[in-house]
Amino acid sequence: MTSDNHTQNRELQQDARAWAAFTGTKYTAAWRQMNSPLAQGLLGGRVSARHLIAILDDHELIGARGGTPRLGEKGFSSAVAWRFNGATDFIELALITDMLRMFTPLPDSATPEVGSYSLKHTAEWFLSPHCSYVSNGRMIWAAAALGLPIAHPGGSGPNLLIGVPEREHDYVRRMVGPGQTKPKADHHLPAGYAYLQTMLARAAAGEHITGGWVRPVPVAASAPFHDWLILQAGRDDVIGHLASDYSAGVRDSDHRIARTPDELLAIFHEVSHSPEAYDAVVSTIAEWMRTVPSAAPVRTELIGGGEHDNEGWGAGAGTVERYEYLCPCGDGEIIEEHDNVPGFREHDVRIDCAKCCAEWRFVGGRPVRDWRLTPVAVSATI
Ligand SMILES: [Zn+2]
To answer: What digits encode the pLDDT tens for the residues 60-105?
Structure first.
């Protein structure tokens, strides 16, 4: 046994002894729980039983601090004492802690906004079948031990507010909750979600997970079009209404984020919408391009085509290329053609849609293969 192992073993023994005394169970039963693969910290360090016990006294909001207990099984100011089963109580607290670790940490200054009672249900669904019951009190206990921001919303109820990102919690609740509408985009997916699901299954099968998880560094992707569009949401015109619908769709994970006008058009190609809503998209893109003249003009999705051999017309063989792209409104096409045949070379791109022909034009001075579109309204006098 190495000295590291020796230290680890002694800490487990101390934890088992403390947990046995605190819960009124036998040392051997507590020792078994301390050694469960599910209690080793799947998204971080192993949860310390002594730390869990200490937080019930020390914590500034939920700690008894020498007085009567302030947290019980049913929650804050609950007179219902903890009910420990001596077999899985510690493992369950460790699992609730890991479930809370999958969320992006909020700054200490953030106002907690997810209710502990709502979060306890989400934890039950997410951790099922490894932990089928999570009490309100244990959810608050694990959050306090993890050091998450916790607030008392006022009144004398047993529920507290816990500092995990509200949108990420909503995403998880809809992924795992019964009868929920599943999110259609993943920009609110918590960083540890998939990893924790995988590790839960492996640990439940008896594997001791080692190595630990490294929280990915958030990529600060700049999305000026998205940022600008969100800011238009308060306006009382077609662009303001589109921006409000777009913001709500991003908030509720109904569609992904549009970093560029191209992506906004692509989102509209995937969801059903009214002709008026599409017209508002064109007006929005036109205004964006007037506001930011350096913004990239639009390119749409490739939907078909390719390169074919051609025997030529007497001067040798060559190839002909033809590519089809969706037109901006999505009902027609943009056709790009190249004749690469000796004596017969031609490059051409055109809009095969009457509506888009009237509303869009190709940006001049670009090679045919690098065509881009802007709304006609960009250059129109407003
Ligand atoms: Zn069209």
So the answer is: 999 999 999 999 999 999 888 999 999 999 999 999 999 999 999 9
Residues 131, 261: one domain? no
- Residue 120 Cα, ligand 1 centroid: separation in angstroms? 49
Ligand 1 center–CA 124 separation, angstroms: 48
- Owning domain of residue 249: 224-291
Same domain, 25 and 164: yes
Question: Of 266, 291, 316, which marks where a domain is finished?
Answer: 291
231 with 167, same domain: the answer is: no
Q: What is the pLDDT of residue 382?
A: 44
- If you measure from the C-alpha of residue 356 to the centroid of ligand 1, how many angstroms do you get, rounded to a whole number? 4
Query: Do 133 and 249 belong together in one domain?
Result: no
Domain membership flag for residue 111: yes
Centre of ligand 1 to C-alpha 289, Å, is: 19
**Using H for helix, E for strand and C for coil, what is the string for the chain?**
CCHHHHHHHHHHHHHHHHHHHHHCCCHHHHHHHHCCHHHCCCCCCCCCHHHHHHHHHHCCCCCCCCCCCCEECCEECCCCCCCCCCCCHHHHHHHHHHHHHCCCCCCCCCCCCEEHHHHHHHHHHHHCCCCCCCCHHHHHHHHHHHCCCEECCCCCCCCCEECCCHHHHHHHHHHHCCCCCCCCCCCCCCCCHHHHHHHHHHHHCCCCCCCCCCCCCCCCCCCHHHHHHHHHHHCCCHHHHHHHHHHHHHHCCCCCCCCCHHHHHHHHHHCCCCHHHHHHHHHHHHHHHHHCCCCCCECCCEEEEEEEEECCCCCCCEEEEEEEEECCCCCCEEEEEEEEECCEEEEEEEEECHHHHHHEEECCCCCHHHCCEEEHHHCCCC
Q: Are residues 34 and 85 in the same domain?
A: yes
Rounded to the nearest angstrom, the distance between the alpha carbon of 351 and the centre of ligand 1 is 8
Give every residue of the chain whose pLDDT is below 70, as ranges: 1-2, 155-156, 211, 380-382
CA of residue 186 to ligand 1 center, whole Å = 29
Is residue 105 domain-shared with residue 244, that is, in the same domain? Answer: no
Q: Please give the distance, rounded to the nearest whole angstrom, from the Cα atom of residue 266 to the centre of ligand 1.
A: 13
pTM to 2 decimals? 0.83
Q: Ligand 1: distance of its center to the CA of 380 in Å?
A: 20
Residue 107 sits in the same domain as residue 252: no
Is 192 inside any structural domain?
yes
Q: Domain total for the chain?
A: 3
